[in-house]
Amino acid sequence: MKVGVVVFPGSNCDEDTLHVVRDVFGHPAQLLWHKDRDLKGSDYVILPGGFAHGDYLRCGAIARFSPVMEEVVAFAGRGGPVLGICNGFQILTEAGLLPGALLHNAGQSFLCRDVLLRVDGSPNRFTGGLSRTATFRLPIAHMDGRYFIDDEGRRRLEGEGRVLFRYADDNPNGSLAAIAGVLGEGRNVAGLMPHPERNAEPVLGNGDGRAVFAALLGS
Amino acid sequence: MVARVYITLKPGVLDPAGKAVESSLHTLGFQDVASVRLGKYIELELPEGDGTAAKARVEEMCRKLLANTVVENYRVELGSER
């Protein structure tokens, strides 16, 4: 599996993500520039964390119109797996590939700390093999992570088992129903606010991100 | 002509920044303020022409980029000067 990590101006987790995919999991991986109109043979696309295009207007609002996003949308439409982490999640909601929106944290502060996550939703390609009873400690680092969706959207999301992750101990940013990650309608696009790549090796923490990232990649 | 675009959070969507401003106003003695909602104001300069068509065009810009209609409402006003 060849993994493409998209770099937007202002992405800052692209190299970390590339490192984990390539050096921790051993997948061939490449960076894709936001102006590329070609995914260069990638079989799996990741939109990493950061502040793409300065997060001007709204987080992800400008990035979703980057040339590469046309290819990402087409790739997702063909069933290709796409993962958005943090800012990548925000971009995927702006692009309409994932439902809902990510709003300013309820506490009005930038949050940079560990949270506990639990896995939810019905079986899917992104969380297969992860324990449903365990919690996973992952870092968050965001200002706009409050997941919101209207009542009807939430009923659909919950009814179709498309809530991937929920905050397990506290709800750091005021997300609706403590939602930390969701799955798209076609079940091949996923997004989450926490950063599995930042805790995928024991030197960076307890290594919980390794199990989570491995599941997300399906490896 | 100039288009003035007002973008506001939909009713029912929590606005923590608005709450913070509301609380500060109360601290300053403006107790009569019942609620504060923050939004965005965007000014666009457009060529002179048909107002109805221009408004429809700006509303399209709102739906495509300027607002996120999942959580925001927009309102467009046209004027002749800035």
Describe the protein:
The complex is a heterodimer of chains A (219) and B (82). Chain A has 219 residues and is of the alpha/beta class. Chain A has a single domain, classed as Class I glutamine amidotransferase (GATase) domain (Rossmann fold), CATH 3.40.50.880. Chain A has helices at residues 14-24, 67-77, 87-94, 151-159, 208-217, and strands at residues 3-7, 29-33, 44-47, 82-85, 101-103, 111-119, 136-142, 146-148, 163-167, 179-183, 189-192. The N and C termini of chain A lie close together (9 Å). Chain B is elongated. In chain B, 11% of the residues are buried. The chains are: A alpha/beta (219), B alpha+beta (82).
Topology readout:
The complex is a heterodimer of chains A (219) and B (82).
Chain A: E1 3-7, H1 14-24, E2 29-33, E3 44-47, H2 67-77, E4 82-85, H3 87-94, E5 101-103, E6 111-119, E7 136-142, E8 146-148, H4 151-159, E9 163-167, E10 179-183, E11 189-192, H5 208-217
Parallel strand pairs in A: 1-2, 1-3, 3-4, 4-11
Antiparallel strand pairs in A: 5-8, 6-7, 6-9, 9-10, 10-11
Chain B: E1 2-9, H1 16-27, E2 39-45, H2 51-66, E3 72-79
Antiparallel strand pairs in B: 1-2, 1-3
Essential attributes:
heterodimer, A: alpha/beta, Rossmann fold, 5 helices, about 20% helix, B: about 80 residues, alpha+beta, Mth169, Chain: A, three-stranded antiparallel sheet, about 30% strand, elongated
